[in-house]
């Protein structure tokens, strides 16, 4: 028994002393200590006091004991708004969403804190649209939003249009937009959608900028792809005599990763050493990512091994690094090691592993990773589900991929794009087009990847009219400007249908500029349909734009030979021989158990390759022998 409990009369005479006891519970970080204090309150009849009850509820929710908190809540004689709000917050924190909504509906008085707690709770559970609806309802009952209200809303907006509406609502609510907290939230909000100009507009309205302001602006530039502009903002930050923090350094290294600029990245890394940030897991993770993207795998591995403590962020970076360099088995081994160290994997960890498995490892390992998903509670996570769909589609198990897609409750555009690409590559052309129509009916705007999948499906299915129609509606109806891949698919659709002239007309009108790959599709079609004049024109264009390739010479020689122009054939072949061009080598691979076998140019690049080819030769000999007999 603790000594101070002997002086029970002190508890009767001084509520402040009781509050001190509760404070000791938090400082000791002991739920047992808190329960002991609470038990003495019950003996002394102090459990009905509002202030002490509120403190107990707050502490129980901090320790994750929501049931004990609810019991304390019931014992309070006079429940004020603070009592309700603390309990409401605790229910959300413990994941009891339904009970929280029921309590909110039964509250006698809802102040701005109550509404903020509900909006924040909806947002934390992923119900962004409901959070926005609740905000509208809040204003409808006459509750004035606070700075915190708008701070929550800026984190849940789902489109640039909603972002501008929230900003406009702030102005109409007479919010002080020069406030650094509001300003920082707006910068981050606009940065999320790549609206860098709006982020700079917010900066101009702020009277004071702190480190978070500059971090948000640098991050906004980085997310929008304006990497050089992000580095310029860092220079401005230093000119304002503000010291960068860990988030600044991690963002800067991500900028250098995007630029593939190892030298600038090393300068940031050296600064981290100087100020002591190098062992921060976020900074170290960014450094590993920098080394990985700059093809310095050995540096990434060395830096990872130098870390004294591991956490999920650091291990995620290293697993992603292994996966990026084709070391799928190493990524899987590190994952197993993190489990042994009781480091809980995140959704990103599982996503990286599934990407690694789908490229480098057998499907059995993918099934094992999939089995972990429900155990980790990630079955409703969109990122993990999308990775599973992608993995099964790449392995050819398209029905399994489609089942997982259908089970995703909140499908984002990545989900639709992933399954449509998977269906397309597995020959399910009609299903791909059906899903595209369903996507349009759902009101979700398609992007360039969506149209790439649909046009590729039309190409594989030889749907000329459908493909041309979709291509023409891209920019006119959906505002998606066609890029090189879209033009190449449409050109191939036309070329397969023998409409070479229409294909050439489209290529010559390309807004993004022609590329050798597109002309290669056309020249192959010209040769296939025996159009000598068109073949010569296209071959000349390819020779001018891509002089190192041998394709136009080979096609011309073939067409001249078919046409009986033997002198031209000899001349082209001689020109090809004088160029000394090298043949492109194609590769294929197959995974058997835990090994990946790679075939290229009549050579098996793996141990045991000679034995395999001897066995193949023996089989061929037996087949020929049986045939001759």
Automatic annotation (TrEMBL):
One of its GO terms (molecular function) is RNA binding. It comes from the Eukaryota. The keyword Repeat applies. PPR repeats lie at residues 111-145, 210-244, 311-345, 381-411, 412-446. GO terms for biological process: RNA modification. Keywords: Repeat. This is Pentatricopeptide repeat-containing protein.
């Amino acid at each position: 028994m603790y000594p101070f409990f002997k002086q029970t009369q002190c508890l009767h005479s001084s509520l402040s002393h009781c509050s001190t006891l509760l404070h000791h519970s938090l400082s000791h970080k002991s739920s047992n200590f808190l329960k002991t204090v609470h038990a003495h309150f019950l003996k002394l009849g102090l459990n009905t006091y509002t202030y002490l009850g509120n403190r107990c509820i707050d502490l129980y929710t901090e320790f994750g004991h929501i049931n004990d908190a609810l019991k304390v809540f019931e014992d309070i004689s006079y429940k004020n708004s603070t009592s309700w709000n603390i309990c409401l917050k605790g229910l959300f924190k413990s994941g009891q969403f339904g009970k929280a909504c029921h309590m909110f509906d039964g509250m006698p008085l809802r102040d701005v804190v109550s509404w903020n707690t509900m909006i924040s709770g909806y947002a934390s559970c992923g119900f962004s649209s409901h959070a926005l609806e609740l905000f509208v309802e809040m204003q409808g009952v006459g509750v004035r939003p606070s700075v915190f209200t708008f701070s929550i809303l800026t984190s849940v907006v789902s489109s640039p249009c909603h972002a501008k509406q929230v900003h406009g609502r702030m102005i109409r609510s007479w919010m002080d937009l020069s406030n650094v907290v509001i300003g920082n939230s707006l910068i981050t909000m606009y940065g999320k959608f790549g609206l860098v100009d709006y982020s700079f507009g917010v900066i101009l309205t702020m009277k004071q900028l702190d480190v978070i302001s500059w971090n948000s602006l640098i991050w906004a530039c980085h997310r929008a792809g304006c990497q050089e502009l992000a580095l310029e903002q860092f220079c401005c930050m230093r000119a304002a005599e503000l010291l960068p923090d860990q988030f600044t350094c991690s963002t800067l290294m991500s900028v250098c990763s995007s630029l593939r600029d190892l030298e600038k990245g090393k300068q940031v890394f050296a600064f981290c050493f100087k100020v002591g940030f190098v062992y921060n897991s976020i900074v170290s993770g960014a450094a590993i990512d920098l080394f990985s993207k700059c093809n310095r795998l050995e540096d990434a591995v060395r830096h990872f091994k130098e870390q004294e403590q591991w956490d999920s962020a650091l291990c995620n970076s290293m697993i992603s690094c292994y996966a990026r360099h084709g070391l799928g088995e190493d990524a899987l081994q590190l994952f197993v090691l993190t489990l042994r160290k009781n480091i809980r994997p995140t959704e990103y960890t599982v996503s990286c592993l599934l990407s690694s498995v789908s490229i480098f490892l057998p499907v059995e390992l993918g099934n094992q990773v999939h089995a972990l998903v429900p155990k980790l509670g990630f079955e409703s996570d969109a990122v993990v589900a999308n990775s599973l769909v992608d993995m099964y589609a790449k392995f050819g198990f398209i029905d399994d991929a489609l089942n997982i897609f259908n089970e995703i409750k909140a499908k984002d555009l990545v989900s639709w794009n992933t399954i449509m690409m998977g269906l397309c590559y597995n020959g399910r052309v009609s299903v791909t087009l059906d899903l595209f129509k369903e996507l349009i009916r759902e009101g979700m705007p398609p992007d360039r990847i969506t149209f790439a999948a649909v046009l590729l499906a039309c190409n594989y299915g030889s749907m000329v009219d459908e493909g041309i129609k979709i291509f023409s509606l891209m920019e006119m109806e959906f505002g998606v400007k066609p890029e090189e891949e879209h033009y190449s698919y449409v050109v191939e659709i036309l070329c397969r249908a023998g409409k070479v002239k229409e294909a050439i007309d489209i290529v010559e009108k390309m807004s993004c500029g022609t590329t050798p790959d597109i002309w290669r599709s056309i020249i192959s079609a010209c040769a296939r349909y025996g159009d000598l004049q068109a073949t010569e024109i296209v071959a000349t264009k390819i020779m001018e734009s891509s002089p190192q390739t041998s394709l136009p010479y080979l096609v011309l020689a073939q067409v001249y030979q078919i046409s009986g122009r033997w002198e031209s054939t000899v001349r082209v072949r001689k020109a090809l021989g004088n160029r000394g061009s090298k043949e492109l080598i194609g590769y294929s691979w197959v995974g058997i158990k835990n090994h990946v076998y790679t075939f290229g140019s009549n050579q098996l690049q793996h141990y045991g390759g000679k034995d395999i080819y001897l066995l193949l030769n023996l089989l061929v000999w037996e087949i020929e022998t049986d045939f001759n007999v």
